[in-house]
Amino acid sequence: DFGLSSELAFVVEPSDDIAVQEQPLVLYCQVEGIQPITITWRKNGVMIVDSENAFMLANGSLYVSRFQRVRGDGSSDEGEYDCMAQNHYGLVVSRKAKIQAATMSDFHIHPQNAVVEEGGVARFQCQIHGLPEPVILWHKNSMPVNTDNERYTLLPKGVLQITGLRAEDSGIFHCVATNIANVKFSREARLTVSGSHSSVYKDPMILVGPENLTLTVHQTAVLECIATGNPRPIVSWSRLDGRPIGVEGIQVLGTGNLMISDLTVQHSGIYVCAANKPGTRVRRTAQGSLVVQAPAEFVQHPQSISRPVGTTAIFTCVAQGEPPPQITWLRNGQILETSDHIKLKNNNSTLSIYGINQTDEAIYQCLAENSAGSTQASARLTVLWADGLPSPPQAVRAETVSATTIQVSWEKPLQNTKEIIGYVLHIRKAADPVEMEYQEAVSKSTFQQLVTDLEPSTSYSFYIKAYTSRGASKASEVTVVSTLGEVPAMPSLFIKVINSTAVQATWEPSIKLGQHEGFKLYYRKVHLSQYTGPVLLASNVTAYNITHLDASVVYEVKLLAYNQHGDGDSTVRFVSLRDTVERTVLNPPCDCMKDEQNNKTSTTGIIIGIHIGVTCIIFCILFLMFGYRGRLLMCKNVQEQLSTPQIPRSQRSAVLNGATRRDRDDRDLNGKPLDMNELERLFPASLSQEQQDKGMTSTHSPPMPHDDTQISTLPLDEFSIIEEQPDPLPNHPRGGSPPAPAPDYGPTNEG
């Protein structure tokens, strides 16, 4: 993890440490690589010179004989130390080791006297700052507290909890803080246990809840929660985000304190302590946040690479940590500065070096650092350069051909030209970064290239390389040239007639027009040679009204866009106002009030017409229904109909009307109604002759057309069937002519 470069890399790097005043200090640094290797040390970025107080050992470690936080001259041995190793391949720098002096302050929180009833809870606390973190122990009556007693709980931050108090718990308490710098004692506090255990109900109450903590992975977190109440409340823990706390590394201290060992980043969160009254939903809560930081560590190290001259070298360095680490790149121990051919991307995770040359050969380091720690990794770039490669192409020239085309020409290299297999032309907008460059390959016998599809009024840079099977030459000199300006394209023009003397010219803004300063508008009568205009319009104008025109002639309208390079092609449209005049004569202006009245009248007429139409439909339906029923015939009996004599035409109506008045329950001899098919079988001749008789139609119903439909499910009225011969001299309607004989449609039933 200290780097993957075999030429030069760290095996052991200096680590953070806490030094004791007036005691010796050793910082370790071990390097592997190709000898000779030189190791030097720096403190706060300044080179350390060997002295009586600090000097380097033979193995490369730094020895400080008497560490002092503050020296007589005001200097201090505290600070950030790193070691540097160098050989002929390059230079690497170790991670920074933070060295601090061991200290201990005075107590800033002392235990306080307390009077608590029997069965209650007592809590003492003392706090003190120190490096390293002091270990705090408690004494009762000048003797160490018995930690085997389950009712006594000692928390790492200097808290003593005593639950289920008894009379023998009374006494004098104080704490003792110890680290490598010193030992200190707090003030004393008296605990008095009064009375007997009370049976009075008390709501749950949290005396002290968890505090906010910020720790590092692998450390131990203790979240305090102490509650009182009668009956004694049950203490439980949960996470505010609902995730389970888990069981691995989790322990409960005393009656409700939560201890999490070997912290990971996943333990970060807000923890909630709840004091619950047994058997009820009565509860009190308190919460505290836990932030777990992780030092920076590499997910992907940079790899040493070898690349030919003129190519691109890419190093990738991915690190993780909490908070996310910042990445810095070094080149031979110095902070790498970006330029046109050195770029950093992806939050500095990717280092790209374009168009490398021999000066780029070095050891590159990736430093990842956050508030929890730092780490580094290194990789070497080797630039390949083969003997006998061509020299750079000569006399590179670029000439502008048009607004989108430039011709580049060159001459072959002066040396080592026999193995050339071709040339590569490198093209880039002068304002673009190096990574936007693109190339065009050219055969070895060609010494010019027409570069097309360029942008107008834009500067481009060009350089050439000659290639062999063993590598490329160095780049030629860079030449920069600009394309010509371009006049705007033709605008889209539309003409709209406003009235008999005015039209409106409109056009659409478009990026296809290119860079333009504005528009020029011309118009004229088609039979004249002279234009009116130009009318100069700004680039943001998209319409113009042309007025005071002659309605009797045709006009030509012309529009073009222009810029500093000249006028673009024009768009021409022709327009005539004569049709507008004719439409005005044929269609005079409307009388709006009159039209409104006409519209109302028309609406009323439509409504009346709808009512009339619906009424007609209803009458037609009734007409069809009664006519259909009139065609149902009924026989009184088969015997009477077979013997019925013919009667005169004048008597037929009375017979028919009399038949309709008879009782509808009359039946034939068999008690069954006769249907139409049976009548046709019995009286084929009589019914056919009957249909020919024009005067046979009842005065009460209109004649019905022939219908072969059989109706057998409805009761039939009883009728007398009379066969009648036509009159020899029929009476014709007054003032009319004899009717034509009716066609024979077959039998017709009348009722």
UniProtKB/TrEMBL annotation:
Transmembrane segments: 606-626
PROSITE patterns the UniProt entry points to: FN3, IG_LIKE
Keywords: Disulfide bond, Glycoprotein, Immunoglobulin domain, Membrane, Repeat, Signal, Transmembrane, Transmembrane helix
Protein origin, superkingdom: Eukaryota
Biased composition (Polar residues): 643-654, 686-701
Membrane topology: Single-pass membrane protein
Keyword Protein biosynthesis carried by entry: no
Domain Fibronectin type-III per the UniProt entry, residue ranges: 392-486, 487-583
Residue span(s) of domain Ig-like: 8-100, 105-192, 204-287, 295-382
Compositional bias (Basic and acidic residues): 660-670
Annotated segments matching region Disordered: 643-751
Cellular location(s): Membrane
Main location: membrane
PANTHER family, alphabetized: IMMUNOGLOBULIN SUPERFAMILY DCC SUBCLASS MEMBER 3 (PTHR44170:SF20), PROTEIN SIDEKICK (PTHR44170)
Protein family: Belongs to the immunoglobulin superfamily. DCC family.
Protein name stated in the entry: Immunoglobulin superfamily DCC subclass member 3
Native organism: Formicarius rufipectus
Lineage, top ranks: Eukaryota, Metazoa, Chordata, Craniata, Vertebrata
